[in-house]
């Protein structure tokens, strides 16, 4: 596809997601108490959006992922939390 075709097909969806991220960060900023490691990981991952480097999606996914290779014995919760607490 040409860049124009990509923009025509995906711009409005990307615009929507960008506004949703801004709204999420506004809600976090208005909240009380301390944030946990997820906010730090999120902000660090967002830096890759504007860096102009290739494979931004892969880089951001890896920035939020657990890089360890060995499985843990027992999961500490019921589900994924979206960021690895060991980073930062």
Q: Unreliable segments (pLDDT under 50, ≥5 consecutive)?
A: none
Number of domains: 2
What oligomeric assembly is this protein in?
single chain
What about the largest sheet? none
Output the number of helix runs. Answer: 3
Structural class: mainly alpha
Q: Tell me the strand percentage band.
A: under 5%
Radius of gyration: 16 Å
The percent of residues in helical segments reads 40-55%
Write the H/E string, N to C: HHH
* Silhouette: extended
- Using DSSP, what is the number of strands? 0
Mean pLDDT: 91
Q: Could you tell me how far the N terminus lies from the C terminus, measured between alpha carbons in angstroms?
A: 38 Å
Report on the structure:
By secondary structure, this protein is an all-alpha fold. It folds into 2 domains: 1-33; 34-67 and 80-88, no CATH class. The protein is 53% helix and 0% strand. The chain contains 3 helices and no strands. Helix 2 (37-46) runs antiparallel to helix 3. It is extended and about 50 Å long.
Features of this protein?
mainly alpha; 3 helices; 53% helix
In short:
The protein is an all-alpha fold and 88 residues long. The protein folds into 2 domains: 1-33; 34-67 and 80-88, no CATH class. It has helices at residues 3-30, 37-46, 56-64.
Task: Give the helix/strand layout.
Layout: H1 3-30, H2 37-46, H3 56-64
Helix pairs in contact: 2-3
């Amino acid at each position: 596809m040409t860049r124009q075709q990509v923009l025509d097909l995906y711009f409005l969806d990307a615009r929507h997601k960008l506004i949703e991220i801004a709204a999420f960060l506004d809600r976090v900023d208005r909240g009380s108490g301390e944030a946990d490691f997820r906010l730090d990981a999120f902000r660090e991952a967002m830096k890759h959006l504007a860096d102009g480097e290739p494979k931004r999606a892969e880089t951001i996914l890896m920035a939020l992922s657990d890089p360890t290779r060995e499985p843990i014995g027992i999961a500490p919760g019921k589900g994924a939390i979206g960021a690895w607490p060991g980073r930062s």
